[in-house]
Amino acid sequence: xxxxxxxxxxxxxxxxxxxxxxxxxxxxxxxxxxxxxxxxxxxxxxxxxxxxxxxxxxxxxxxxxxxxxxxxxxxxxxxxxxxxxxxxxxxxxxxxxxxxxxxxxxxxxxxxxxxxxxxxxxxxxxxxxxxxxxxxxxxxxxxx
Length: 144
Fold this sequence. Notes:
Strand order of the largest sheet: 1-7-6-5-4-3-2
Helix content: 25-40%
Radius of gyration: 14 Å
Order of helices and strands: EHHEEEEEEHH
Oligomer: single chain
Shape: globular
Structural class: alpha+beta
Number of helices: 4
Largest sheet: 7 strands, antiparallel
């Protein structure tokens, strides 16, 4: 897994509130363009976000499914973006005083993305997730 972390200057509850609102997914996840539907049970195991990735007019409709969910601590996802493939993503939250350390782990698990050697794909995934955590922090720290 390729890992990036950031200390977000707010509580795990506020970070989890952002993660729990599936409609916010394309606001903080780099590459997600729009939401089409959010299962009512999000972020419970098995719930899906139906999103599009890419840039218009070359959008790909796919979904992301919750594989593990431990409120305020862990959200694990299987993100799909075919024809690129699928990735496993794990977001770990840990309280640090009034702050939250968020660690995001991600790697390709199927499709053409997995065929790219890890030393080649790792820098792109790291860059993407540094920005993803920056966006998550902006929302969690400033959302009323």
